[in-house]
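TA notes. Do not distribute before section.
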Amino acid sequence: MTHAQILDLYIALGGIPHYLKQIEPGKSAVQNINQSCFTKQGALFNEFSQLFESLFDKTGHHLKVVCTIAKTRNGISRNDLLQATKLNSGGIFNKLLNELEASGFVQKFIPYGKSIKEHYFRIIDEYTMFYLKWIAPIKTKSIALRSNYWHTKSKSAAWQSWAGYTFENICYKHINQIANKLNLMNISCIVSSWRYVPKIGSMQRGAQIDLLFDRDDQSITICEIKYNDSDFVINKQYALDILEKNRIFAEQINTKKQLFICFITKNKLKDNIWKQEIVNDVVTLDDLFTT
C-alpha cells in the first residue's frame, strides 16, 4: 500500500494489531474500511461497546467521559469536563481519567501558555474518534447501509475536514520524525498547540496553531498541518492570513523570538512565490514513515 492508503487506514483503525488484522491484501483502504466498519458483519462495526465492557467496570461513566471529550476539537479542561458530564469530582473521577489515559484512549496535556495546573484532555485513539464520528450516528439514526457506503462518504467535504483534524493527532504521535526533518533533535523544545479566543464583543481576530516547537535557540517553529489529496497551494490571501496569525501569536504570548513557518502535508506543497516568501520548512507524509 502507498503511504497515503496506510494513513487513511490508520485514521480509521489506529495502530491496534487486532484491528489491522482485518485488512485484506489486494483491497484499497476505502474497501477495507467499508468492509470492517460499515457492514453489520464487519469486525469493527460493533467493537466499540464490547471494547469498553472488556476493559472497565463502570462502562457508562467511561463512555460518557470519552464521548464528551470527543466533541471538543481542541481538548477540554478538567473542570469543564466535570460540568459537562455532571460527574462528581474526587478520587473516583481521577481514577476514571487515569484508566482512560493508561488504556490509550485519552491524553492529558497543558496547552501552550497555560498554567501547569490547567490540565486538558483530548482523545488520541483513532478508532474511538472514527467510531463516534462515523459509525455511531448510523446506529443511532438506523441508517441503511449501502454496499458502497464508505466509497461515497470518503469523497465528502465532511470527511476531508475531519481527516485533517485526525491527521493532526497522528502528527503528534510522530513528533520525533518531524523534529528530525526540521533538524531539531539536538535542540531542546516545548511541543504544543495554541489557541486564542478573543473576548465576546472584541474586534480582535481569533487564532489557532496546530503544532509548534518552542525552541531554546530563541526561535519558535509554527506548523500548519494539511491533509491534502493533491499538492497544497498557498495563495496570496492564505499567506496573509498566516502572517496575521503569527502576529497575533507573538503579540498574545509577548515573545520576540524568531518565528519560522513549517508546513506538514499529506502530499507536497506546490512551489510558488508565496511558498518561497513565507515557508521555511516542509514535512510530508513520507517523512513520518522514517525511522
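Switch to the second chain here.
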Amino acid sequence: MREKADAKKRARFMRKEGYSYTEISQKLHIAKSSVSLWCRDVVISQEAKERLFQLSLAGRKKGRETWADMRRAQKKEFLDLLAIETKRDIGKLTKRDRFIAGLMLYSGEGDKTQERIGMSNTNPKILEFMMNWWEEFLGLDRTRFYAHLYLHVGLSEPRAKEFWAKALRIKK
C-alpha cells in the first residue's frame, strides 16, 4: 500500500513539472488511468502547458509521418503487384503492338512544333521505350540522341545529367 501512495505522490509531482500522463505512466510503470485519476486536480504552470502542447504537436507530426510511410508502402506494394499482373496479362508485345504504342506515345508526348523528333517526359522507361522505337522503326542512331534538362531550383545539374545519361544510355 505504501508503494501505491509513493507512486501517487511521485505522479502528482511529475504532473506539476509538466510531464504528460503517458510519460508518467511509462516512467512509474503504472496504468495511465491511475495517473489520470491521481492527477486530474493538479494545476500545471503555463510553461508546463506549453511543453505538453509541443509534445502533442510532435506526436501528431510523428503520427502523420508514420501514416504517410505506411500509405507509401501500401501503394508501392499495390503498384508492384499491378505491374506483375499486367505483364502476365499482356505478355510479350508484338512488333505491331510496339509500333502502335510508339505512335500513341508520340502523339501525346512528342514534339510536334519543331522540325525534329523529340519527347518530353520524366519517366525513364517511357523515354527508353521511345528511343528503342525510334531506332527500330525509324532507323535512327542512338549515338546521335541528346537530352535537354529542365530542372527545378535546388536540383543538382551534374547528378541529373549522370542519372539521365545512365538511364537512357546516352552521352552526358
